């Protein structure tokens, strides 16, 4: 099985506030950031956030492509530097992470603002990395064959199995369905969607049903 790697967002005190470096590494990002600390930049890089996944190479390409689509935000076309705020880059990374089964996001900058160290506060970091498991219909007690409404357009689909719906004889996972059928004027910048937020069952959004059940089980 392929080992997980990282997609990282780095900032640098010597950069403009809306400049970031977005890249990938098969090793822990703190090691990679130290490698980048050379005479080419006057101050060391700082880790803003990381995403850990076995699909880190594909995710890096997707986030680069997504930012490039926004406008010409790449500072140099053959480099990993972008004229985009760290927060915006993180929003895109989070959107992409919803399509992955193994995504672990660490918002390092939050720990630093609290004066916490990743090494000395392992429990805090572990908490920040927690991701909800991928949505399944059994989580919200929706039987196979049940009708759902794709809210942006009112399209009716049917539950095909644990994590697929059927529409016009074809089978889709929720997030790819949203990406395919979302109207142009309602699309987000990243093109990645959390599918359960766009379908309703008996008038209630799937993600809201899930949240309600999770709270009852706390």
What fraction of the residues are assigned to beta strands by DSSP? 15-25%
Trace the largest sheet across and list its strands.
9-8-7-6-10-11
Helix content: 25-40%
Q: What is the number of strand segments?
A: 11
- Approximate shape: elongated
Radius of gyration, taken over Cα atoms and rounded to an integer in Å: 19 Å
List the helices and strands in order: EEHEHEHEHHEEEEHEEH
Structural class: alpha+beta
**What's the total helix number?**
7
The average pLDDT score comes to 80
Largest sheet: 6 strands, antiparallel
- Distance separating the two termini: 34 Å
Name the poorly predicted regions: 116-130
Structure notes:
The chain has 218 residues and is of the alpha+beta class. It contains seven helices and eleven strands. The chain has a six-stranded antiparallel beta sheet. A hairpin with a 2-residue loop joins strand 7 and strand 8. Helix 2 (56-70) packs across helix 3 (86-97). It is elongated, with a radius of gyration of 19 Å.
What is shown here, in short?
The protein has about 220 residues and is of the alpha+beta class. The protein is built from 7 helices and 11 strands.
Defining traits:
single chain, alpha+beta, five-stranded antiparallel beta sheet, 7 helices
């Amino acid at each position: 099985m392929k080992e997980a790697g990282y997609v990282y967002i780095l900032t640098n005190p010597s950069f403009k506030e809306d400049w970031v470096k977005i890249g990938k590494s098969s090793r822990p990002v703190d090691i990679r950031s130290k490698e980048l600390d050379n005479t080419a930049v006057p101050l060391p890089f700082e880790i803003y956030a990381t995403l850990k996944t076995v699909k880190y190479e594909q995710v890096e390409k997707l986030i680069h492509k997504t930012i490039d689509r926004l406008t010409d935000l790449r500072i140099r076309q053959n480099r990993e530097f972008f004229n985009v705020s760290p927060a915006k880059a993180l929003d895109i990374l989070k959107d992409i992470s919803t399509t992955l089964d193994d995504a672990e996001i660490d918002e390092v900058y939050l720990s630093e603002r609290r004066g916490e160290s990743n090494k000395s506060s392992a429990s805090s970091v572990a908490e920040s990395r927690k991701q909800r498991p991928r949505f399944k219909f059994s989580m919200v007690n929706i039987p196979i064959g049940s009708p759902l409404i794709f809210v942006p357009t009112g399209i009716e689909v049917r539950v095909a199995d644990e994590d697929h719906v059927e529409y016009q004889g074809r089978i889709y996972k929720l997030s790819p369905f949203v990406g395919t059928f979302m109207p142009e004027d309602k699309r987000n910048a990243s093109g990645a969607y959390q599918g359960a937020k766009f379908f309703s069952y008996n008038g209630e959004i799937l993600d809201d049903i899930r949240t309600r059940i999770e709270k009852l089980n706390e």
